[in-house]
Design a protein that fits this description.
The structure is a homodimer. Chain A is mainly alpha-helical. Helix content of chain A is 63%, strand content 7%. A two-stranded antiparallel ribbon of chain A has the order 1-2. In chain A, a hairpin with a 7-residue loop joins strand 1 and strand 2. Chains A and B meet through helix 1, helix 2, helix 5 and helix 6 of A and helix 1, helix 2, helix 5 and helix 6 of B. Chain B binds a DNA duplex through helix 4.
Chain lengths: 147, 147
Amino acid sequence: MERDLLDLPVLLLSAARALVDGIDAGVRARGFDDLRPAHGFAFVRLAGDGATVGQLAEHLNVTKQAASQMIEELVTKGYVTRRPHPDDARARLVVLTPKGWACTRAADEAATELLRPWAAALGPERLAALRADLARLGTPGRVRPIW
Amino acid sequence: MERDLLDLPVLLLSAARALVDGIDAGVRARGFDDLRPAHGFAFVRLAGDGATVGQLAEHLNVTKQAASQMIEELVTKGYVTRRPHPDDARARLVVLTPKGWACTRAADEAATELLRPWAAALGPERLAALRADLARLGTPGRVRPIW
DNA sequence: AAAGGTAGTCAAGCTGCTTGACGAAATAGT
DNA sequence: ACTATTTCGTCAAGCAGCTTGACTACCTTT
């Protein structure tokens, strides 16, 4: 059991990759073919009540400039809008447009479609155990690119 | 159970990220501080009997030029060597140097150190179940960056 | 009112990847 | 055996996504 621990990284990373690739493919298949997986991580943060550039930068673990640049791209493509921040005239609140929300729903559908058969094969108990075990290893919340 | 499927990507990616970051930190702590996680994925392929540039490129899902470039960097830093290929005078077999093997062992140690308490907390049965469940989702073998 | 800190953008540069083109060697066709 | 085609690896140039540095506008503290 000690030596075999080394196959776990491979299994985990393969599973993560399958997920990212599958969701990306599903999103593209639904017509949103001008986005990359990295954009999905931004959407996760924006999908609540929106976020400022700085908040998004922290979430993605990049500089404000990089985040600002990605937002500019998403604005151009029609997925998000910059609105004045209610409490701070310096800041700008970045929120999803209807198109942005549609894309988010598409990603959710793709993910569900991908995971449903898998979850069904596992069954509720193992699924619950898996959730607990994974949560013990990572620290959910900040979902962003790995390297 | 249907709606909750959407937290699984977050859990999986968080766990994967924790692993990659942890191993990277462990490798650096052991003195190999001039490598990035991406290099680790190359090492995985080279650690067998070595590989050609083309094989590594396919493993990493990049062009031959990009793989060749990374190899050049690893050669300069002393982790790998280019040897003539036994069966094909065009090809060159890239293999790990003693330093490369030492780094590989360091990565294994870091991974084991990271996973041991986690595995102990889970216990053998849940660990086995986790392995099986993860293997069902991804397709192990080609471990490479996700996006 | 003045001083310092913070939000966001503009500009320039770097790194890791890409596409394109090439010589050397293996393989296939005749 | 000889030519034609494919494959291995590299050189060269270009591009995309990030970085650091500098700056303005605005908030906060005293």
